[in-house]
Amino acid sequence: MPDTRRRPRLPPLYLLGPAFVAAIAYVDPGNFATNIAGGSKYGYMLLWVLLAANLMGMLVQTLSAKVGIATGKTLPELCRDRFPRPVTWGLWVQAELIAMATDLAEFVGAAIALNLLFHVPLFASGLITAAVAFGLLALQGRGYRRFELAITGMLAIILLGFLYNTLRIGFDAGEAAKGFIPSFDGTESILLATGILGATVMPHAIYLHSSLTAGRIHTRDDAERRSLMRFERADVLVAMALAGLVNMAMLIIAASLFNTRGLTGIDSIEQAYHGFDVLVGGGAALAFALALLASGLASSSVATYAGQVVMQGFINRRIALVLRRTVTMLPALIVLAVGVDPSRALVLSQVVLSFGIPFALVPLVLLSRRRDVMGDLVNHRATTLAAWLVAAAIIALNLFLLYETFTG
Predict the structure, then answer these.
(1) Looking at the predicted structure, is the pLDDT value of residue 6 above 60?
(2) What's the mean per-residue pLDDT of the chain?
(3) 3-state SS string over the chain?
(4) Confidence band of 1 (pLDDT split at 50, 70, 90)
(5) Which whole number is the average pLDDT over 7-24?
(6) What is the mean pLDDT of residues 274-278?
(7) Average pLDDT in the 112-136 region?
(8) Cα 405 from chain centroid?
(9) How confident is the model at residue 169 (pLDDT cuts 50, 70, 90)?
(10) Neighbouring C-beta atoms of residue 385, cutoff 10 Å
(11) CA 28 to CA 113: how far, in whole Å?
C-alpha cells in the first residue's frame, strides 16, 4: 500500500542551498581574471557575454538539479548506467583533466589573495589554500547544511566586496547598457569571451548540482518531486542571479576604473589590486582582495567535492581525499613554484574549462529529455531545444576560437 502518512512540512529556507554551493563555481578566481581583463581592455563591450553565460548557467543548473531530484542519482552515475563503458571512461578522463584546470584557477586565485593581503609567498599560499579547503570539507561530516551555510557565507563576502566597490567607484549607466549589444573586437576579444564563458558555466558545477539534490530530501511520488523542483528553481534563480550580479560588477568596475582612464593593459589580478589602491584607496583594494580570497577558498573546497562525485559516479571508485586533492592540485602548485605569470595562467585555464562544457552538457541534455530516466520531470520540448541551442553556441564559439587562433 502507498504511504499516505502526512509528511512534516519543511520551511522553504531549509530547501534552499544546493544552488548556492554550485553558484560559487560561477564566481571563482577565474572570473576575476577574465572579467578584469575584459573590462579593462574592452570596456563594457563584453557585458552581453556575461548576461548570456548567466542565463545559460540558470538553465544548465536547473537541469542538473532536476536530474538529481528525478532519479536520486548524480549525472555521472546516470552516465555510467546508460552509456557504453568506453564512453563513460572517456567522459571520466576528460572530467579529471578539467578538474586540474579548475584547481589551477582556484589555487592560484587564493594564493594571489593571500600574497596581496599578508605577503605570503605564492607557493606557501597554495598549501594554505589546500589546508583550508580540507577544513571546509570536514564540515560535511557534521551534515551537509553546515557546509552549505559556510559556502553561502563566502558568497556573501564576495557579493559585499563588489557591492562596496561598485558604490565607491560608480559607473556610466548609459555606456554600460551599450555593452549588452552583442559585438566582438578581434580574436583577443573572442578569447576573453570564451574564457568568460568557461569561467561562468563550469563543467564541474554541472556534475556537482545533481549530487547536491540527489537524495537530499526523500520523495515518495511524482507530486512531491514536482513540489521539490519548484523550490529548487527558486534556489537556482536567486543564487545564479547573485552570481551574475557579481560577475557584471567585476567587469563594470574594471571598465569604469581602468578602461575609461586608458589603462587598457590591466590584465592581471595584482595590477587590478594596486590600481584599486592607487586610484580609489586602501579600502577598495582590501574589499577586492578579501572577495578574491573568499572566492578561492570556497571554490577550492567545492571543486574537491565535485571531484569525488565525478570519480565515484563515472567509474564507481573512491580514493582517499588527500590523495585525490594532491593529484589535481599539482599543476597549480607547479605554476606557483616555477613563477609562471599566475593571472595569464588563470585566463588560459578558463579557456580550457570552456572546452570541457560540452562533455558535461550534452550527456545532461540527452538524459534529461528521456522519460524512462526522468519520469514526470522529463524536459519539455522547448527546454530540450533551448539546452541544445546552448550547447551548440558553446561548441561553435570554441571552434571559431580555434580557427581564429591558428589561422589569424
Answers:
(1) no
(2) 88
(3) CCCCCCCCCCCHHHHCCHHHHHHHHHHCHHHHHHHHHHHHHHCCCCHHHHHHHHHHHHHHHHHHHHHHHHHCCCHHHHHHHHCCHHHHHHHHHHHHHHHHHHHHHHHHHHHHHHHHHHCCCHHHHHHHHHHHHHHHHHHHHHCHHHHHHHHHHHHHHHHHHHHHHHHHHCCCHHHHHHCCCCCCCCHHHHHHHHHHHHHHCCHHHHHHHHHHHCCCCCCCCHHHHHHHHHHHHHHHHHHHHHHHHHHHHHHHHHHHHCHHHCCCCCCCHHHHHHHHHHHCCHHHHHHHHHHHHHHHHHHHHHHHHHHHHHHHHHHCCCCCHHHHHHHHHHHHHHHHHHCCCHHHHHHHHHHHHHHHHHHHHHHHHHHHCCHHHHHHHCCCHHHHHHHHHHHHHHHHHHHHHHHHHHHC
(4) very low
(5) 74
(6) 95
(7) 89
(8) 25
(9) very high
(10) 13
(11) 12
- CA 252 to CA 37: how far, in whole Å? 11
Q: What tens digit of pLDDT does each residue of 48-75 get?
A: 999 999 999 999 999 999 999 999 999 9
Cα–Cα distance for residue pair 150/298, rounded to 1 Å? 8
pLDDT bin (cut points 50, 70, 90) of residue 12 is low
At 8, the pLDDT band (50, 70, 90 cuts) reads very low
Quote the CA–CA distance of 199 and 38 in Å, as a whole number.
13
What Cα–Cα distance (Å) separates residue 315 from each residue in 22, 119, 263, 303?
A: 22, 42, 49, 18
Q: Which residues touch 225 (CB under 8 Å, ≥6 apart)?
A: 69, 70, 219, 375, 376, 377
Q: Which amino acid is at 64?
A: S
Query: 302 near 202, Cβ under 8 Å?
Result: no
Tell me the C-alpha distance between 300 and 154, whole Å. 12
Mean pLDDT comparison of 104-108, 164-168, 334-338, highest-scoring range:
164-168
Q: Closest Cα partner for 283 from 172, 171, 161?
A: 161
